[in-house]
Amino acid sequence: MRMREGWRGGFAVGVGLAAGSFALAVSFGAFAVQHGWPPWLAVLASVVTFSGSAQFALATALDGGAGAVTAVASATLINLRFVPMGAATARYLHGGALRRALEGQAVVDGSWVAAQRDEGTTDRPKLFGATLVQWPAWIAGTACGALLVPSTDVARAWGLDMVFPAFFALLLLDTVRSRPGCLPHAALAGVLAGAACLVVPPGVALLTAALAAAPAVLRPPRREGPA
Predict the structure, then answer these.
(1) Is the pLDDT of residue 227 over 50?
(2) Residue 114's closest CA among 1, 8, 212?
(3) Which of 51, 126, 205, 223 is the most buried (most CB within 10 A)?
(4) What does pTM read for this prediction?
(5) Which residues contact 1 (CB under 8 A, 6 or more apart)?
(6) 217 alpha-carbon distance from chain centroid
(7) Which is nearest to 83 in space by CA: 100, 98, 97, 104?
(8) What is the C-alpha to C-alpha distance for residues 209 and 24, in angstroms, rounded to an integer?
(9) 224 pLDDT band (50/70/90 cuts)?
């Protein structure tokens, strides 16, 4: 019963996340093609990567004259956020190495946040359900943007340039709402990222926000009292 509820909850959450993912993917597809990518390559990037921040970082770096190694490195740095997320989810994955690697592909930002239970565990079916809805929407949105290639004026008129930051802002607000104790870490992350933007590129500055988790990571585990 609980598993069925998890899948239903995942699909329900995934529909809302998929709407945002579709809009963001349209902006990525248009952005990539406007900066020299063939449409098929933009769609392929969404099929195999499924990470808006990394894909935008890759396209921006290549357009700015960076070499392939530098562009891939910048995208990899941004996706390092999946390391702690994956580590926290690893114990809920099933099967051998290949199956666990495949199940691990469901760890994407919106799905991972939605699948976190109040007691600190992960709702595995909800994680999978939410991602299964989002992934096709991400690919379809990229294809629409890459093939229709809306102009910069159209993208701004429809607010496509604001979809990406708004998406992450909503995730942050939802986390703080459900877990008020995360507010100090969220505030510290914002200060660190904002200060870093003054001296390093935004993509790298975003990574410095992860330092806000250091106090929680370094805090000694709480000892259980006697039974």
Answers:
(1) no
(2) 8
(3) 126
(4) 0.67
(5) none
(6) 21
(7) 104
(8) 22
(9) very low
The size of the chain, in residues, is 227
Identity at 185, one-letter amino acid code: H
- What is the residue-wise DSSP string for 128-165? HHHHHHHHHHHHHHHHHHHHH---HHHHHHTTGGGHHH
Residue with tokens 């709480």: 222
Residue with tokens 């019963």: 1
Residues in Cβ contact with 138 at an 8 Å cutoff, skipping those fewer than 6 apart: 18, 21, 22, 24, 25, 46, 50, 52
Report d(CA 167, CA 139) in Å as an integer. 17
> Please, which residues bridge with residue 116 across strands?
122
CA-CA distance, 136 to 199, in Å (whole number)?
37
Q: In the numeric block, which tokens belong to residue 82?
A: 């999946």
Using DSSP's 3-state secondary structure scheme, residue 67 falls into: coil
Q: What is the largest CA-CA distance in the chain?
A: 65
Q: Which residue shows structure tokens 């990229």? A: 142
210, 104, 33, 206: CA torsion to nearest 10: 0
Residue 161 has pLDDT above 80, yes or no: no
- Residue whose token pair is 């992860």: 210
- What pLDDT does residue 205 have? 66
Our separate counts of H helices and E strands in the chain read 13, 0
**Per-residue pLDDT tens over the stretch 6-37:** 778 888 888 888 888 888 888 888 888 888 88
